[in-house]
Amino acid sequence: MAHPDDVDFGAAGTIAQWVDEGIEVSYCIVTDGDAGGFDPAVPRDQIGDIRRAEQIEAAKQVGVSDVRFLGYPDGRLAVTFELRRDIARVIREVRPQRVICQSPTRNMLRIPASHPDHLATGEATMCAIYPDARNPFAYPDLADLPRGRSRRRGCRATSGSTATST
Questions:
Q1: How far is CA 10 from CA 4, 6, 22, 66, 84, in A?
Q2: At what angle do helices 116-127 and 81-94 cross, to 10 degrees?
Q3: Which SS3 state, helix, strand or coil, does residue 123 take?
Q4: 6-165 domain in CATH 1.50.10.20?
């Protein structure tokens, strides 16, 4: 998911059901949400830490303990090879059977769902799923990590509206 809380708004019910069924779930959150928040009394340099803590607590509420933050700046995401590599790294480490991610397609009827960070995260995730996570020659710095088909039953949530089997 692009931001802390995106997974909660987009897929928490599904994820809670999966956890209840015994499926191990991991979250990959691309930003710390440091550009979010609406209270001017809260110092801006504290927002990222607050939103991280809130996401970790929200994940616990649905039974998720593996929450990974990539630390990209909120509101400034672009589909870069670095972002694709970092998501591919998580895919190789987790080796999910299911990936939930935000759609890379702009929805003119639901503009807030088409936040630029959501679009970039969706496109980077789709690229990370294929070909990046499976290509042994993509990202030599990931060569020591497994690649290919999932070895365990699980889910990696990156953002909320596209589901893909890996």
A1: 11, 6, 20, 18, 22
A2: 60
A3: helix
A4: no
